[in-house]
Amino acid sequence: MREYLMPIFVVAALALAGCNKSKSPEEVSKDVARAEQKAINEVTKSEERAQSALDAAHQTYKVAIAKADGNRKVALATCESQNGAAQKACKDQAEADYKTARADARVSAAVAVQQK
Questions:
Q1: pTM for this model (two decimals)
Q2: Where are the domains of the chain?
């Protein structure tokens, strides 16, 4: 039985060792640039839809969510330059900021609907 467990533990250890590894500055820079460009594109699309839509509050919410999503992607790409616990903390902070931005967008949308 032990003969079968040892390879499983070795594979699990190797898989875990690959997590939270830092990337080279060049790779991080490319990832951040790609995430920023994608965020800009998503925000632009959302803004264009907001201009042509009847329900401005809903579209404003969508724009805010697109911005939050873009900021999250950029932050997560930036976290790749770190490793270990610092990378995990960075990713956790990015996720927390994203959740806060989504909650703020919901509140803003609710206020906008109530004002109509």
A1: 0.58
A2: 22-115
